[in-house]
Each structure stands twice: as C-alpha cells, then as structure tokens.
C-alpha cells in the first residue's frame, strides 16, 4: 500500500484547502522535482550552462535509464524531447508513406495526432481511417482485424484517451497490426505514470509520453521510445542526431538519439528524471492502485447527484473520470469549482473529435485524481458538484 501521508507531505501543492483533480492536464510535482529544476537553474546562473551540465552528466544519463526501468526498455531506445506531441510526430513523420498507403487511427485519438495524420495524408496520397470502437467504447479488435491489409503502414493506438478513463487493449491490437507488418505507434501520454507500462509486453514499435501529466514532471518535457531494431530516418537531423564525418558525408546516430536535437532544457530533463525516479521508488503498481481506487470512488459518488452523468467508457478503467452536469456548461462548472479552489479541466470535442461527435458531446468535465489526493478532498469535490444546481 502506498503511504498517502508521505506522498502528500512530499507534494508542496497539496493542503491549504486546494482540491487538485487535474493530473491528466498538468499535475502537482513532488518537492524533489521542483528542487532539482531550480537547483540546476541556479547553478547555470553561477557557472554557465555548459559547466553546469558537465557537472550533472551522470544524472543526465540516469534520466533515460530511469525511463527505461519504468517502461522496461533499454536506455538507448529512448529519445528525450519537449512534449508527447513532439515525440509522436517525430516518429510519425519518419514513417515512409506513399499514395494508396493507409494510416489507421483510434476512435478517441488525440487531435494533434489526427491532424498530423491528415496533414501527411494530404501530402502523400495516403488515407486516414478510424478504427471503430466496440460496444463498450474501447478499440474494436475484430473491426481492426477486418480492416488491416498490406497497405496499412501505420496504426496509431491510444492507451488511455484524453477525455475518459478507458484503457485500450494495446497488446492485442498490436499483434493484429503486426500480422501485415504495419508499424504501431502508441500514444501513452495519459497512461505513462499512471498504469504500469511494459513495452516488451505491449509489443509496440514506438511510444510517446509527456512529463507534466501523471509522471508529475516539469512542463516542456516528454520522451519517445523506439524499438531498437527499427532503422527509421528522422525527417530532420542536426549534429547530435547525426555526425558530420566527411565533407559530403554524415552518419545518423544508431540509437534513439537520432530523434533528439543537441540543445535542450537541461534543468527540465533533470526534473523529469527526478520525477521518474520518485515514481519508481513509490512503486508504479501501488501508485496506479491508489489512482484507480480514487477514480472508482468518484465514479460511484458522482452519479448519485441528480443531473450528473459519468461519461467514461470501456471495459477497463483508469484514473480519468469524465462527466457532464445537465443544464450547466462544462466551462461554467469548472469556473464555479475553481472559485472554491477545486481544480479540474474541460475536455472539448475538438480534442477528440471523432469520439465526441459520435456521442453527441460538445465537452466533458475531466476529474483526474492522482495518489496525492485524499478521500476527504474527493468528498469536498463531490459536495461542491452537488451544490451547483
Ligand atoms: C495531453 C495529450 C497529448 C499531448 O501531450 P503534449 O505533451 O501536450 O504534447 C497527447 N495525447 C493524449 C492522449 C493527451 O492526453
């Protein structure tokens, strides 16, 4: 069991009457993360960025090692960058596509991914087709099996959508995609730091994640995992992703650094490493159990309020609780709760257009409690929702 008292004590943002329910947006970091970032920024101010980085070389190497332990991957298969979208698009734009090729996307795929897919389809003559959802609302494996053929070059899978708590059957879907040799790119932005992730077990070819959500890292951090034996050529190279070897020659890095540029926010990276180390120390399984229990608690309590509908789909549920309140705009609910120091966000149809249009929803409220949220805080949130109407 997770020591909730300890986790709360190590999170400077909790207490003081704040109820924080937005770890699916941008979470509250543990103290060690902020300290790591600020300490490094101070050091840069004292000795300059190069020497400050030189002094932390071991810690910088440790960032990929920690992420590797978290997702069961070799450090060399990880590229650090500034967001999940950067990671996703770096991989996606490297996949060769031509006229007649097919890109399959998930029913609740994130807008940034869908836009990139449509963008490249327009440029290459490939098509973008959504994979239907099954009656539970998760990815329909039979539909996927019926859709695939040799022209499918990439399948975009979504682990946990941005607008609800379901968990898609990624390992099963990946096996189906691999039957025709399609590459599988997994958006694990909402699952990393929440669910325990094992890329070997999932079998995906690439995975994208962000630092600031469930991992509780700094903003402007993210990473890409790429299967080590996959020799894709990035769309852009620099003097870190490649080496200038002769006047007319260069050599692309053999490992995932081929997807990195030289310059980076060193303090942010160190902070991301601290966040991952912290999670590993707590135990990812225990953290997930605490998150899932809090989400289930809300899924029981919220529907007891007249006019409140929980909108989560799927057979297996994670830590995002989506809901609507009859007769009240989601943004209005969010703002009124904010006046009471209760933080949650709204997920609009434009973020997950296919899914929201299909369900006829313009927006949903999104409550995403991390392990540092106490049950009395959840009760205060539920009472505040009940008092709205
Ligand atoms: C937040 C989110 C993203 C984008 O993450 P960034 O770090 O902002 O690029 C991608 N996919 C899903 C499902 C998300 O919720």
Automatic annotation (TrEMBL):
Report the catalytic activity: S-(hercyn-2-yl)-L-cysteine S-oxide + AH2 + H(+) = ergothioneine + pyruvate + A + NH4(+)
Highest taxon of the lineage: Bacteria
Q: Tell me which SUPFAM superfamilies the record gives.
A: PLP-dependent transferases
Which residues get modified to N6-(pyridoxal phosphate)lysine? Answer: 213
- Gene Ontology MF terms: hercynylcysteine sulfoxide lyase activity (ergothioneine-forming); transaminase activity
Question: Where in the numbering of this chain does the Aminotransferase class V domain appear?
Answer: 19-381
Q: Which Gene3D superfamilies match?
A: Aspartate Aminotransferase, domain 1 (3.90.1150.10), Type I PLP-dependent aspartate aminotransferase-like (Major domain) (3.40.640.10)
Which coenzyme or cofactor does it need?
A: pyridoxal 5'-phosphate
InterPro entries, alphabetically? Aminotrans_V_dom, Aminotrans_V_PyrdxlP_BS, EgtE, PyrdxlP-dep_Trfase, PyrdxlP-dep_Trfase_major, PyrdxlP-dep_Trfase_small
Q: In which pathway does it act?
A: Amino-acid biosynthesis; ergothioneine biosynthesis
The answer, when asked if Transferase is one of the entry's keywords, is: yes
- Which keywords appear in this protein's UniProt record, sorted alphabetically? Aminotransferase, Lyase, Pyridoxal phosphate, Transferase
> What's a Pfam family in this record?
Aminotran_5
Its EC number is 4.4.-.-
Class in the EC hierarchy, top level: lyase
Q: Which family does it belong to?
A: Belongs to the class-V pyridoxal-phosphate-dependent aminotransferase family. EgtE subfamily.
Q: What does this gene product do? A: Probably catalyzes the conversion of hercynylcysteine sulfoxide to ergothioneine.
| Protein's UniProt name | Probable hercynylcysteine sulfoxide lyase
Species of the source? Nocardia panacis
């Amino acid at each position: 069991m997770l020591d909730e008292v300890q986790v709360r004590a190590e999170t400077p943002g909790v207490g003081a009457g704040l109820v924080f329910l937005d770890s699916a947006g941008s979470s509250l970091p543990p103290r060690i993360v902020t300290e790591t970032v600020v300490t490094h920024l101070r050091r840069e101010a004292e000795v300059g960025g190069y020497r400050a980085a030189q002094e932390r070389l071991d810690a910088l190497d440790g960032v990929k090692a920690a992420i590797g332990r978290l997702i069961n991957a070799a450090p060399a298969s990880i590229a650090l960058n500034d967001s999940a979208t950067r990671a996703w698009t770096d991989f996606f734009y490297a996949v060769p596509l031509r006229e007649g090729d097919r890109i399959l996307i998930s029913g609740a795929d994130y807008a940034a991914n869908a836009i990139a897919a449509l963008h490249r389809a327009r440029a290459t003559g490939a098509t973008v087709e959504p994979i239907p959802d099954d009656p539970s609302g998760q990815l329909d494996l039979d539909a996927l099996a019926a859709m695939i053929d040799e022209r499918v070059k990439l399948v975009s899978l979504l682990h946990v959508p941005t607008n609800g708590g379901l968990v898609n059957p990624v390992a099963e879907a990946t096996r189906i995609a691999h039957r025709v040799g399609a590459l599988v790119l997994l958006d694990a932005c909402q699952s990393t730091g929440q669910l325990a992730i094992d890329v070997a077990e999932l079998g995906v070819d690439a995975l994208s994640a962000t630092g600031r959500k469930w991992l509780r890292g700094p903003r402007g951090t993210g990473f890409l995992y790429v299967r080590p034996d996959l020799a894709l050529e990035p769309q852009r190279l620099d003097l870190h992703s490649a080496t200038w070897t002769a006047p007319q020659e260069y050599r692309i890095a053999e490992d995932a650094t081929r997807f990195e540029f030289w310059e980076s926010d060193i303090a942010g990276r160190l902070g991301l490493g601290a966040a991952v180390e912290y999670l590993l120390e707590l135990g990812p399984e225990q953290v997930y159990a605490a998150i899932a229990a809090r989400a289930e608690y809300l899924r029981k309590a919220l529907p007891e309020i007249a006019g409140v509908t929980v909108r989560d789909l799927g057979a297996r549920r994670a830590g995002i609780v989506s809901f609507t309140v009859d007769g009240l705009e989601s943004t209005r609910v969010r703002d009124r709760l904010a006046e009471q120091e209760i933080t949650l966000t709204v997920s609009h149809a434009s973020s997950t257009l296919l899914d929201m249009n299909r369900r006829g929803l313009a927006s949903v409220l999104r409550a995403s409690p991390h392990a540092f949220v106490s049950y009395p805080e959840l009760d205060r949130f539920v009472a505040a929702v009940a008092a709205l109407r």
